Amino acid sequence: MSLLARLAPHLPYVRRYARALTGDQTTGDHYVRVALEALAAGERTLEDHLTPRVALYHVFHAIWCSSGAQLEGPEVDDLTTGDDATRRLLRIAPRSRQAFLLTALEGFTPSEAAQILGADFSEVERLIAEAQSEIDAELATDVLIIEDEPVIAADIEALVTELGHTVVDIAATRTEAVDAVARKTPGLVLADIQLADGSSGIDAVKDILARYNVPVIFITAFPERLLTGERPEPTFLITKPFQPETVKAAIGQALFFHPRKASKQAA
């Protein structure tokens, strides 16, 4: 199999990674192209003990380091282009940014990220934790919990508080949820589906999103009610019983990647 055939399925993903890493697609593509040219010229080779995708990212990082590329780039506050997620990424310390993107965006395991970065497994875990801490600190926000089971609501509240966020209200019904948002607009909504009075958390979220642009995470024992094959389906869906770390990771990703837009409510 030719080199191009081996790498072709992975090129869109390494381009995505390079763009997130640099904050700019043109700059990212430049480093991808240099890496491919080095492979084609025999200046770099794919490590036989690595999968093709891991090996490609490994070569990309070798080229990056040897070229003297600087992850810092322009001052974040001086950027005139790029979305909020890009600006947040560029505020994360460079090495932590790489480990975070490789695992959170590209889906590599920490072991694979360690192979790509030429680092120890323990170092990669530390870098990921540092990135997550920076994200949590920057994205601290007000949270509305829509949940009719007091014990579960308390568990979710504890997780949210541990991450540095503030729970502004806990609603047990659709009406309570809508009223809570009218009093104070949250930066994140965590919602169950089946509520105390027989009302629907799905309908409550629809009411909220009709007026406000906020990220939503559904935490439910009935995921089939959302995964119907129709669109839009929720980006973040956690099945009960849940693992605390799963909820924490979803909160960080939902806040990090959610595009900030003006409220739909009239000023």
Characteristics of this structure?
267 residues, alpha/beta, Butyryl-CoA Dehydrogenase, subunit A, domain 3, Rossmann fold, 2 domains, 9% strand, elongated
Mean residue pLDDT: 85
Distinct helical segment count:
12
CATH architecture of the largest domain: Up-down Bundle
- CATH class of the largest domain equals Mainly Alpha
**Large-scale geometry:** elongated
Cα-based radius of gyration, to the nearest Å: 21 Å
Query: How do the strands line up in the largest sheet?
Result: 2-1-3-4-5
Number of domains: 2
* Sheet/helix structural class: alpha/beta
User: What is the CA–CA distance across the termini?
Assistant: 60 Å
- What percent of the residues sit in helical stretches (DSSP H or I)? 40-55%
Low-confidence stretches: 261-267
As for the CATH topology of the largest domain, it is Butyryl-CoA Dehydrogenase, subunit A, domain 3
Order of helices and strands: HHHHHHHHEHEHEHEEH
Strand content: 5-15%
Outline the secondary-structure elements.
Layout: H1 3-7, H2 11-22, H3 25-40, H4 52-66, H5 84-91, H6 94-105, H7 110-117, H8 121-138, E1 142-146, H9 150-162, E2 166-171, H10 174-183, E3 188-191, H11 201-209, E4 216-220, E5 236-239, H12 244-257
Parallel strand pairs: 1-2, 1-3, 3-4, 4-5
Structure in words:
With 267 residues, the protein is of the alpha/beta class. The protein has two domains: 3-137, PhyR, sigma-like (SL) domain (Butyryl-CoA Dehydrogenase, subunit A, domain 3); 140-257, 3-Layer(aba) Sandwich (Rossmann fold), CATH 3.40.50.2300. The protein has twelve helices and five strands. The chain has helices at residues 3-7, 11-22, 25-40, 52-66, 84-91, 94-105, 110-117, 121-138, 150-162, 174-183, 201-209, 244-257, and strands at 142-146, 166-171, 188-191, 216-220, 236-239. It has a five-stranded parallel sheet with strand order 2-1-3-4-5, with helices on both faces. Strand 1, helix 9 and strand 2 (166-171) form a beta-alpha-beta unit. The model is unreliable at 261-267 (pLDDT under 50).
